[in-house]
């Protein structure tokens, strides 16, 4: 490949000016000023060199992002790897609660509760379980974007539409991106946001149900464990062997046998399992409940987590000019929920909200109508 003549010409002019500037300093002293023509040409060349790596968009944030890029890359890589670990952790913890419920609690419910309460616990518990499993599976598997886009992403250099953002962990652009969830090992976006929210809501309701219904069992189990500890400490009789016989504590050949404990290993494990289940479900209910309430607020406002930050900054910017900012994707609180769940008639509150449903969301994520609610829809 032959070098560019323009580049060689600029290089030769730069070398000649450097030599002239050095000769001028040597002949007139280091503190003397260069001629105006030389300083002008020198400033012009510096501007040309700076233009190769500097532009008007460069600021301290861009410089810091460039310096921190290796750290961001490492964090994205670790998060992508830990995503699979978090998914396994969700499956293991949920399975442990189910094992305790089926092995320990279900026989207790069948033997002690009245028939109406048995029907309630079995019916609600299995409905809640189906909703959790279905929505968690759909949330982890649904988000891929195979639709051509209409604008350009500055990170992956591919077209993208409005409300789309680049995920460094998934290394792709996500339609209507809300956030990257490590517990799903997936991004929450246009095609799986409903699954994510329904999973959070179902899991929260399930944990609250276990926490409230198992409160008395937890108190009884905790008291039983404490009682077992005192029994172990208050055991009468101590085996005496060896020196004990020599100093006359016991006659030769006589050994004190400790009586068996009044509880079995199965009883102890049952009570510990109840304590484990109650503490885990109560903790998850508080943490996940807060997240669910936050996303419910966002859905009511017709925005995502990312758009919440963007809209706040835009509202502050317009307030300085005496203007009010209005979210163009906010169709009203009720309409936002209807768009989110895909409710078009009254029966959809049952078939698409209270029961598992795999229907697609409104739109394709590329374009957004002013109001997707049809005028001929049945008021719900």
Overall geometry comes to elongated
SSE sequence, one letter per element:
HHHHEEEEHHHHHHH
Radius of gyration: 35 Å
Which runs of at least 5 residues are low in confidence (pLDDT < 50)?
26-31, 242-250
Count of helical regions = 11
- Termini Cα gap: 71 Å
Helix content: 55-70%
Summing up helix and strand content along with how strands pair, one would put the structural category as mainly alpha
Account of the protein in words:
- This protein has 380 residues and is mainly α.
- It is built from eleven helices and four strands, in the order H-H-H-H-E-E-E-E-H-H-H-H-H-H-H.
- The strands form two sheets. The chain has a two-stranded antiparallel sheet with strand order 1-2. Strands 3-4 form a two-stranded antiparallel ribbon.
- Helix 3 packs across helix 8 and helix 6 runs antiparallel to helix 8.
- About 4% of the residues have low confidence.
What is the secondary structure topology, with strand pairs?
Elements: H1 5-28, H2 36-50, H3 60-112, H4 115-141, E1 165-167, E2 172-174, E3 179-181, E4 186-188, H5 193-213, H6 215-233, H7 243-246, H8 265-301, H9 305-319, H10 333-341, H11 348-354
Antiparallel strand pairs: 1-2, 3-4
Helix pairs in contact: 1-2, 3-8, 4-5, 5-8, 6-8
InterPro entries: Palmitoyltrfase_DHHC, PFA4/ZDH16/20/ERF2-like
EC number: 2.3.1.225
GO molecular function, one term: protein-cysteine S-palmitoyltransferase activity
């Amino acid at each position: 490949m032959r070098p560019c003549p323009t580049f060689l010409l600029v290089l030769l002019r730069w070398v000649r000016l450097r030599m002239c500037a050095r000769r001028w300093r040597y002949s007139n002293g280091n503190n003397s000023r260069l001629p105006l023509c030389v300083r002008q040409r020198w400033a012009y060349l510096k501007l040309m060199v700076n233009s190769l790596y500097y532009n008007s968009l460069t600021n301290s944030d861009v410089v810091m992002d460039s310096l921190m890029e290796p750290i961001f890359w490492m964090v994205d890589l670790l998060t992508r790897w830990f995503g699979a670990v978090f998914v396994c952790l969700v499956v293991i913890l949920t399975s442990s609660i189910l094992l305790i419920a089926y092995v320990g609690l279900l026989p207790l419910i069948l033997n002690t509760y009245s028939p109406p309460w048995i029907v309630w616990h079995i019916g609600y518990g299995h409905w809640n379980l189906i909703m959790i499993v279905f929505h968690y599976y759909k949330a982890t598997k649904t988000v891929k974007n195979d639709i051509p886009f209409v604008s350009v992403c500055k990170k992956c250099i591919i077209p993208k539409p409005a409300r789309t953002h680049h995920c460094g962990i998934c290394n792709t652009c996500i339609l209507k991106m809300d956030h990257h969830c490590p517990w799903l090992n997936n991004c929450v976006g246009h095609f799986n946001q409903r699954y994510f929210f329904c999973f959070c809501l179902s899991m929260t309701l399930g944990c609250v149900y276990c926490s409230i219904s198992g409160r008395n069992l937890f108190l009884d189990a905790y008291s039983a464990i404490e009682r077992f500890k005192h029994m172990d400490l208050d055991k009468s009789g101590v085996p005496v062997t060896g020196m004990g016989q020599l100093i006359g504590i016991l006659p030769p050949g006589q050994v004190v046998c400790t009586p068996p404990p009044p509880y079995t290993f199965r009883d102890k494990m049952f009570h510990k399992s109840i304590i484990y289940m109650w503490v885990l479900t109560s903790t998850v209910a508080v943490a996940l409940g807060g997240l669910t309430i936050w996303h419910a607020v966002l859905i009511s406002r017709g925005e995502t987590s990312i758009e919440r930050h963007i809209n706040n900054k835009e509202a502050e910017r317009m307030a300085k000019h005496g203007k009010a900012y209005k979210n163009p994707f906010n169709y009203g609180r009720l309409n936002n929920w209807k768009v989110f769940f895909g409710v078009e008639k009254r029966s959809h509150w049952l078939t698409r909200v209270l029961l598992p449903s795999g229907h697609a969301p409104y739109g394709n994520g590329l374009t957004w109508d002013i109001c997707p609610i049809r005028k001929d829809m049945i008021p719900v």
